[in-house]
Write a structure and sequence with these properties.
Alkaline Phosphatase, subunit A; single chain; Alpha-Beta Plaits; alpha/beta; six-stranded mixed beta sheet; about 400 residues; eight-stranded mixed beta sheet; 13 helices
């Protein structure tokens, strides 16, 4: 029986080819294809796990399928009606979101903004879909002059609040987010309220103190199921935040990908029985949204360099699963997430090299993890564990 499973989400590292991509305006989006075309992309360890052996995965000049991958590999389709981190992580944990969270392409209605202004005692500026880096360039100085909160959204279901640390303290900004989270219910129930602090002088820089205040999952997820059966459920990065910390026994937030990898290296040396569910968010926030192909490629290369040391410390009864929660093609139009399939790379000393194909869904990971641990499971998805484990 497996004792520990490390689920590592490379936030936004999609592999394209979603059959419903055109319904989301994302036909042709393929994060892997775009990132691997960069001269800075170096991923021999991901390649050895089977990344480019995934059916119809992007093929580059330097990378392609190899004869004998050391892991099992496949592509997973998203069933949920969305393409953001919340629904992606929920589905990876067995909860399919059949009703999409509301979007606000024209900004939030006046009744929402007026109520928020009343409760926070601060005016609001912007209230439009915006790039997070551009919004502080365009509204940062007005915010400094007036003290008004910069509220904006995107192509995702998010209510984002940006404020300069010299004007609004981190504690106050988080409290404002909690106010928004509480008032945004019913038809205004966005998937996430996000604190976006920034500092310095124009053109300003965002700090690492971002915090996500997620909607609460409407029913149990893999995390709840495991916790109720007395397994450890450890969150690293923003993972637990995306579940409103529901179902977690331990939560460690991080400041960057590198910090997340450090925390993973610490976790792999600890004794626990259950899952370590980690998110590395910089791929998405620092490179995907900013349409920085080369930066994304460099970040993947850094993660690839991290893998050998981490994998060396995996025990006989450990499993590592690498996946993603959505796409964010840095060569696609706009600055929003892209609807894509995601990779599923599974490694462990008890794992055979098996092509899991292209028909799987995100929630197969949840079903498989429960199967690996021997836990009872009744949510969505089908386990692939018996296909890939050594008899």
């Amino acid at each position: 029986m497996i004792k520990r499973v490390f689920i590592i989400v490379l936030d936004s590292f999609g592999v394209g080819k979603a059959i419903d991509a055109k319904n989301f305006g994302d036909a042709g989006a393929d994060t892997l294809a775009s990132v691997s075309s960069s001269e800075y992309f170096k991923a021999p360890n991901l390649t050895s796990l089977g990344l480019f052996n995934i059916d119809d995965a992007a093929k580059g000049k330097k990378y392609g399928p190899i004869p004998n991958p050391i892991g099992s590999y496949g592509r997973l389709n998203e069933e949920s009606k969305g393409k953001d981190s919340t629904v992606g992580h929920w589905e990876l944990a067995g909860l399919v979101s059949n009703v999409p969270f509301p979007l606000f392409p024209n900004g939030f209605p006046s009744e929402v903004i007026s109520e928020f202004e009343k409760l926070t005692k601060r005016k609001v500026i912007c209230n439009k879909p915006y790039s997070g880096t551009e919004v502080i360039k365009d509204y940062g100085e007005e915010h400094l002059r007036t003290g008004a909160l910069i509220v904006y959204t995107s192509g995702d279901s998010v209510f984002q609040i940006a404020a300069h640390k010299s004007i609004v303290s981190i504690d106050e900004l988080y409290e404002d987010c909690l106010i928004a989270r509480k008032m945004l219910s019913g038809k205004y129930n966005v998937s996430r309220v996000i604190a976006r602090p920034f500092e310095g002088e124009y053109p300003f820089i965002r700090t690492s103190e971002r915090h996500d205040f997620s909607a609460v999952p409407e029913s149990d997820t893999l995390c709840d199921i495991l916790k109720k059966q007395n397994y450890d459920v450890i969150g690293i990065g923003k993972t637990a935040d995306l579940f409103a910390e529901k179902g977690f026994t331990q939560n460690t937030r991080t400041k960057s990908n590198e910090d997340g990898m450090d925390k993973l290296n610490e976790a792999v040396l600890k004794d626990f029985h259950g899952i370590c569910f980690a998110n590395l968010v910089d791929f998405d926030t620092m490179y995907g949204h900013r349409r920085d192909k080369d930066g994304y490629a460099k970040a993947i290369s850094v993660f690839d360099d991290f893998l050998p040391g981490f994998m060396k410390n995996l025990r006989e009864d450990d499993i590592m699963i690498l996946t993603a929660d959505h796409g964010n093609d840095p060569c696609y139009s706009g600055t929003d997430h892209t609807r894509e399939n995601v990779p599923c790379l599974v490694y462990g000393k008890g794992v055979k090299s098996v092509n899991l194909g292209s028909n799987g869904v995100f929630s197969d990971i949840a079903a498989s993890v429960a199967d690996m641990l021997g836990a009872e499971y009744t949510l969505s998805g089908n386990s692939f564990w018996r296909k890939i484990c050594h008899d």
